[in-house]
Amino acid sequence: MSYKGTIERYKKFLPVDDKTPIVSLLEGDTPLLPSARIGKELGIDLYFKLEGLNPTGSFKDRGMSLTISKAVEVESPMVMCASTGNTSASAAAFSARAGIACTVLIPKGRIAMGKLAQALVHGCKILAVEGTFDEALDVAKALTDKHSITLVNSINPYRLEGQKTGAFEICDRLGEAPDYLVIPVGNAGNITAYWMGFKQYKQVSITSKLPKMIGFQAEGAAPLVCGHPVEDPQTIASAIRIGRPARGDEALAAAKESAGFIDMVCDDEIIEAYKKVARDEGYFCEPASAAAVAGLIKKVKSSEIKKGSVVVCILTGHGLKDPDTAIKVTDEMVTIKPDLSEAEKVLFD
Ligand SMILES: *Cc1c(COP(=O)(O)O)cnc(C)c1O
Predict the structure, then answer these.
(1) Least buried of 50, 140, 180, 291, by fewest C-beta within 10 Å?
(2) Residue 147: is it exposed, middle or buried by C-beta count within 10 angstroms (0-12/13-18/19+)?
(3) Do residue 69 and residue 22 come from a single domain?
């Protein structure tokens, strides 16, 4: 049996033809892990989609495979993105794979260490912008408008086309769409893409129902909840530290059309959920992903998400992306001499 990436697996639902060169790292086909404890505690049938198990450790790879393939198809000399980290890691990896030049603009000092390491090691050009993600994106837009460079942020429609394959996989696995799809929201591309995917699968009768789309932003970076842009967004969850979401209107429309909603959670709730997923489920996700779990827990408790429902929560990125946060929010370890009785004292006293 041969391995296939997202484009080959879902070709007939994607804007590709036989002439499109396929740039793939065999992304997608990520596990839908049944919850061991949190689902039972909440009284729901809960699954986690482990998007951190994509080749670069986040869901961004789904959209990047198609986006870079299309850039190669039109012989673009360079691709570019602004990024809170995961988009740049993915763009860097897929560009390396394609052999195409790549430049990423990152908000200086505000991206997680693992993501920075990825961009560096894949050999793309990195511009560290002294400003926010939104300001970096403004520069990337201006550059790509003026020069013949392809912008690969989620403004690029191929990103969403590729990312909708996550919804396909969930339906293929469960036999139909879940009752609720719970997902963190930053630039709002992913919630928009999932909604597109579910609707497309309903059109061709692969699923008979559509999920309610439930999105969560971080309290200090919640423009879609507050109803206005946030100038200097703040949250520990750097992947969703975005004040002017590029796909904000579509995300709000997805929530509304599906009878879902977009709400927010604070950093304390995010960190509590982040540790709970690691400790109760055995899976290490990044803080932004935990925003969805934090929101889910709150909304089942408030009965806005009904008990007994089938819920899929998208764990968007891998915890190893951001080791600094893991170390910062957990207890210090105990230091001992290499001595049996000292070890016993710490363990059993
Ligand atoms: C990009 C990202 C998000 C936010 O997705 P959007 O499409 O920007 O809303 C959430 N979590 C992680 C880990 C991400 O990399």
Answers:
(1) 50
(2) exposed
(3) no
